[in-house]
Each structure stands twice: as structure tokens, then as C-alpha cells.
From TrEMBL:
The organism's place on the tree of life at top rank: Bacteria
Pfam families attached to this UniProt entry: ACT, PDT
Start and end residues of each ACT domain: 206-283
Annotated protein name in UniProt: Prephenate dehydratase
Boundaries of every Prephenate dehydratase domain copy: 2-191
Organism field: Paenibacillus lignilyticus
Length: 291
């Protein structure tokens, strides 16, 4: 049996986990947590096989807190990555917030959701419910549960269809995100290699710390990849938290560590005094709606 730590049931993380893992001949047990720290620690402490981590979003970019956990707090290699659509919906009690089958925006007093999900629906909220109070909670599924437990108060939540069904609430309006191409990139982290699915696409993620007082180090790092024609899908700087102005660089490489070119590029980077830490070399899965 494979055990997986994830954010709360009915969240985008939950739906994304089931997209990757379910239906591939394995017995999956899900362990749900309200806080991302508890998701990480569940696997780091050996209670679960893997953790499901949302790491990047089309609209909001990288999730800095989650990145810092991977880099600074736990030693959990990346075993897979995949993308999943972040489709947010307006959820509430239909008989309370509709008139003759039509959504009555003026009846909505408060909207609750996770801050990232709320930010993805900014224009929708401004256009249709500018009068409503906006309240951030720990997850979209928690927002739906709070609405369920507070009937008659004019509250609605932004969340997933599965959470609405679990809590016997109605989807008042579908796809309320401001952009149609809103996807979230997820990571599967843990000590065991991921073998349930195969992919023709592989990536390697590395963390590079530059040597001090070495002008042009970043240029030389990028040159090591450039002349070998190794494609980089992402470069991100994050503070080392040791001194103001000190950064490390996270680089996602569209190549497996098993190839000939990548280890030699890393060796060249280390030769100029950079520290290189491999965060994982793993299969990468694109979203297919029919799955």
C-alpha cells in the first residue's frame, strides 16, 4: 500500500493527487492535513510514503513557502511532477443564495477561501460581489465546510466541485477564475522512486549556491548548460536567509540525470566553486483531460 500526505480532502491538492495516483493498480491511502508543514512532516517522519506539494501556479507563480520547506526543512527528493487545472467555483446553499433558480449576488454577505484561490478570482469578485466581505482560511475545502456549518448567514465559498459534493452544497457558479488557463504544478516528494506511471518527459531540479566574490559566476553556470544545448525550464532565485543579498538559484532542467551531458555540466559548475545539490530527477506528466 502507498500512503500519501496531502492537504485537506476536497482541495485542489486532493483532486490532483487522485489524478496522478488513482487507477494505476495500487492501493492508495490518503492522509489529510490542514497545514503544509504537517504534509511535509508526515513523510519526513516516515508516516507516509509521499507528500503532495503544490509548488507553482499559472497566475501566482512559485509558492515560496513550499519551496523553502523542500530546500531548508526536509530532505525529501522530488519523485515526480505534474500539472493539474485549478478550477475554482462559487459554492453555497442554493435555497439561500438563489432566486427562481438564478444566483442572487446581493444575498452573498461573505466569501471564504484560501488566499491563493481567492487571488485567482479577483476580477470575478470585483465585478459580481464587490460588497461582500472576503475572508481567508486554511484551504478551499475548509472554506466549504465553514459555509456548510453556518447556514442562513449569506456565506459562500470558492472551492472545488468535489468539496461541494462532500458537504452537500451547490455549485452556484462554475469556473469563476479570472483566467481559463489556470494550472498548478505539483510535486511528489519522498524517498521511494515513483513507478506507477511512465513518462517520455523527464526533469532534474538542482539548487546552486554561488561562491562568494566570484564575478560572472551565474553567467558561467548558464554557459555550462547553453553550449551543451541543455534546456532549462525554470530559473528562480531565493534568499539563503544567511545574509541580506545572498541568494541561491533553483534550476529545473529538461533532462534526466542519467544522460551523459547533464552530469558533465554539473561537474563544470562545481569546478568554478559552486555548490550543487540535486533535488531530484523525475518523470514529468502533462495534464490530459480524458484521464
Amino acid at each position: 500500500m502507498i500512503s500519501v500526505a496531502c492537504l485537506t480532502k476536497g482541495s485542489t491538492s486532493d483532486e490532483a493527487a487522485r489524478y496522478l495516483l488513482n487507477g494505476h493498480g495500487a492501493d492508495i491511502h490518503y492522509s489529510y492535513h490542514r497545514m503544509i508543514a504537517d504534509v511535509f512532516l508526515s513523510t519526513a517522519e516516515g508516516k507516509t510514503t509521499y507528500s503532495i506539494i503544490p509548488i507553482e501556479n499559472t497566475i501566482d507563480g512559485s509558492v515560496g513557502l513550499h519551496t523553502d520547506w523542500i530546500v531548508d526543512e526536509v530532505n525529501l527528493p522530488i519523485q515526480a511532477e505534474w500539472v493539474y487545472p485549478s478550477i475554482q467555483n462559487l459554492i453555497g446553499e442554493a435555497k439561500e443564495l438563489t432566486t427562481d433558480g438564478e444566483l442572487a449576488y446581493d444575498r452573498i454577505v461573505k466569501v471564504l477561501s484560501h488566499p491563493v484561490a481567492m487571488a485567482q478570482c479577483t476580477q470575478y469578485l470585483k465585478k459580481h460581489i464587490p460588497h461582500a466581505e472576503l475572508e481567508h482560511v486554511g484551504s478551499t475545502s475548509e472554506a466549504v465546510r465553514i459555509v456548510r456549518d453556518n447556514p442562513g448567514r449569506g456565506w459562500a465559498a470558492i472551492g472545488q466541485v468535489s468539496a461541494a459534493a462532500d458537504n452537500e452544497l451547490a455549485v452556484l457558479e462554475t469556473a469563476v477564475t479570472d483566467h481559463d488557463n489556470n494550472f498548478t504544478r505539483f510535486l511528489l516528494v519522498g524517498s521511494e522512486p515513483f513507478t506507477l506511471r511512465d513518462s517520455q518527459s523527464h526533469k532534474t531540479s538542482i539548487l546552486i549556491t554561488m561562491p562568494e566574490d566570484y564575478p560572472g559566476a551565474l553567467h558561467q553556470v548558464l554557459s555550462a548548460f547553453s553550449w551543451r544545448r541543455i534546456n532549462l525550464s525554470r530559473i528562480e532565485s531565493r534568499p539563503t536567509k544567511k545574509q541580506l543579498g545572498n541568494y541561491y538559484f533553483l534550476i529545473d532542467i529538461e533532462m534526466s540525470l542519467d544522460t551523459v551531458l547533464l552530469p558533465s555540466a554539473i561537474a563544470e559548475i562545481e569546478a568554478i566553486g559552486c555548490q550543487v545539490r540535486v533535488l531530484g530527477s523525475y518523470p514529468s506528466f502533462k495534464y490530459t483531460a480524458s484521464e
